[in-house]
Amino acid sequence: MPDYGIDAPGVIRNLFVIGVVLIPVGMFLPHIRIGNVILILNSMAYCTGGACLLEGVLMIVYAKYGKFRHRDRMLNMISWRGDEQVLDVGTGRGLLLVGAARRLTSGKGIGMDVWSTKDLSGNSMARTQTNVEVEGVKDKVELRSEDARKLSFPDASFDVVLSNLCLHNIPDQAGRAQACREIARVLKPGGIAIISDFIRTGFYQKIFAEAGLKVRRTGLNLLSFPPLRIVQAAKG
Questions:
Q1: Cβ contact 196:205 at 8 Å
Q2: Nearest-CA neighbor of 157 among 127, 192, 187, 184?
Q3: In sequence order, what are the residues at sequence separation of 6 or more whose Cβ sits closer than 8 angstroms to the Cβ of residue 19?
Q4: CA 206, CA 212: separation in Å to the nearest integer?
Q5: In a structure prediction context, what are the per-residue pLDDT tens digits for the chain, which is 236 residues long?
């Protein structure tokens, strides 16, 4: 069976640790009066701890189930012919790449990543290659180690560029802007980029528009956690 990993495993771990610590600590916290205000510290600890545990659970549910539906939502925004050249930026364990490859006949998909295990559990090219082989699309797929800020591909190389929960991991705004400009650069005239993230999607939209692409952004997908938006950028 393919294994597409757990997104942001360190964040999930921290949420569970905070929740497990705060809930029992709350039993020993007093009420404090400051003037006419009473701080109910134990209730605050219970609520914060419970919220952290719930967020951790929701992130796991998304990683195991929700991201498959979100993947299909992204791919359904494209009118596939089957001969497309596809780039998946920050492919991780290959979820988007495999989904796109299944829609190709003569086309080809390239998945690129820096393979950070901080962003996705067990993230490595070897594990992604295993998923590609198990899913039966290895003849349609190539994997590369690349930085989104400096893609090695010539201008106008791809009909479709995909990316989910990747660009926010670039640590500075200049780098995120450069990644967006690189995506615009390698996109063919008539091509489309589908970029999904939980933050900074308005910024991506702005950079794509400045690069001359026709851009729209969806509302929040409340069935994912964290809720995600999709930026659709078409090159004229």
A1: no
A2: 187
A3: 49, 50, 51, 52, 53, 56
A4: 10
A5: 888 888 888 888 888 898 888 877 766 655 555 554 444 556 777 788 888 888 889 888 888 888 999 999 999 999 999 999 999 999 999 999 999 999 999 999 999 999 988 878 888 999 999 999 999 999 999 999 999 999 999 999 999 999 999 999 999 999 999 999 999 999 999 999 999 999 999 999 999 999 999 999 999 988 788 899 999 999 98
Alpha carbon distance 29, 40 (integer Å): 8
Over the range 11-34, which residues count as b (16 or more CB within 10 Å of their CB) and which as e? bbeebbebbeebbeebeebeeeee
Residue holding tokens 């559990």?
A: 121
Question: What is the four-CA torsion angle of 52, 55, 60, 65, rounded to 10 degrees?
Answer: 170
Looking at residue 68, its amino acid is F
Tally Cβ neighbours within 10 Å of residue 95. 24
Q: Which of 110, 101, 104, 103 is nearest to 137 (CA)?
A: 101
What tokens appear for 165 in the block?
């929960």
| Distance in angstroms (rounded) separating the CA atoms of residues 163 and 77 | 13
In the sheet that 108-113 helps form, which strands lie side by side, from edge to edge?
A: 141-145, 108-113, 85-89, 158-164, 187-197, 229-234, 214-217
**Number of Cβ atoms within 10 Å of the Cβ of 122:** 16
**Do 10 and 100 contact (CB within 8 A), yes or no?**
no
C-alpha 11, offset from chain centre: 14
Q: Encoding tokens for residue 185? A: 């650069």
